[in-house]
Amino acid sequence: MFRRTSIAQQYEKASDCSLRVLVCGSGIAGLTVAQLLRRAGLHAVLIERATTVSAGYMLALLPMADPAIDGLGVRDEYRRRSTPITRYAVDGHTGRRLREDPIGTVVGTFGEYRGIDRGSLVEVLAGGGSDITMGAAVSTVTQRRDAVRVGVAGHGDGEELDFDVVIVAEGMNSHTRELLGHRVRRVDTGWGGWIAWADPDDEEDLGEELWGAGCFAATYPVAGKLGVFLGGPRTDTAAGPAAFFEAMRRRVTTPTDRIERAMAAVAAADDPYYWPLTDVRARDWTLGRTVLLGDAAAGFLPTAGIGAGMAMESAWVLSRALCGGDDIGTALDRFERSQRPRVAAAQRNSRQLARLMFRRSRLLASAREALLSSVSVERALGPIRTILATSP
């Protein structure tokens, strides 16, 4: 997977390339763009602030991730490590099944919709190995006319390195983005929840969500297991997963067997990861020779299941722009003008879904269920289909 090495060793390789590229952050966006650039002959220097790599939980990838996967030549391994999601079910606030739709026939026009755990995806993207320097963080950034001078904490004794372009892909709470002075706007839903694993069932192609009144539960299949999210208003989840599960179980009187098992799995987990449901949007992506990528540019709520796919698409578009032969300013400007509207549309859709999903009132939940019963899956997935139908 990752090959831990010093930044000096990476920089020596980068110095022989036509562009010296620094990628800050080894998440999905950062790893994808680093590997795409390396495949194109540019040894991007990849650094990670953390000292260990997090395995993470479940991801659902829409077909906008396909160009990056194909660009890395890992299609077969990706399909081997993931599972197709062809059906999607929504349950109402009592647990009763409202509808089940064949999303494969709707999205399948553009490619596959597949579930994969984050650790497996990282291994797929890293391929035979990806050079990385762990425990390294940008400490200083000086923009120059012909380069970006970067100080990296833990590297040398106050030594700085020059790069032609710096890609900031450190996630929603990016340290380097703040260091550069980017302005961001955050949206806080006031909700949050826990993520855990449950044993798989025999419906390996089904994603299921329960849209409750003051609660939300979801299950997404990956290879060999079931990813689970259980959440609600943070004022309620503050009681902890076991207490929240008991309160939710009193409200959800007729859950499906899968949702019942999923809720119990979160309650029984030793230390489930808690996710405050917020997002972030940077006002600008580019600043001189630096550019934001993935969640550092626009961090998504998980409601539309599109964030990871958009991050990989953005990484692919950026790698193509940097390898296109234009000067850095032109390449970064072309990337932002091409990709920013697509990312903004996807993020807007995830925010709209959050306003629909995250409701405490039973009256509003009942009205929402009447709406869900009357809307076709084609219309419900309309914003996503529009994005998939156009190329960046």
TrEMBL record:
<protein>
    <submittedName>
        <fullName>2-polyprenyl-6-methoxyphenol hydroxylase-like FAD-dependent oxidoreductase</fullName>
    </submittedName>
</protein>
<dbReference type="Pfam" id="PF01494">
    <property type="entry name" value="FAD_binding_3"/>
</dbReference>
<dbReference type="GO" id="GO:0071949">
    <property type="term" value="F:FAD binding"/>
</dbReference>
<feature type="domain" description="FAD-binding">
    <location>
        <begin position="20"/>
        <end position="349"/>
    </location>
</feature>
<dbReference type="InterPro" id="IPR036188">
    <property type="entry name" value="FAD/NAD-bd_sf"/>
</dbReference>
<dbReference type="InterPro" id="IPR002938">
    <property type="entry name" value="FAD-bd"/>
</dbReference>
<dbReference type="InterPro" id="IPR051704">
    <property type="entry name" value="FAD_aromatic-hydroxylase"/>
</dbReference>
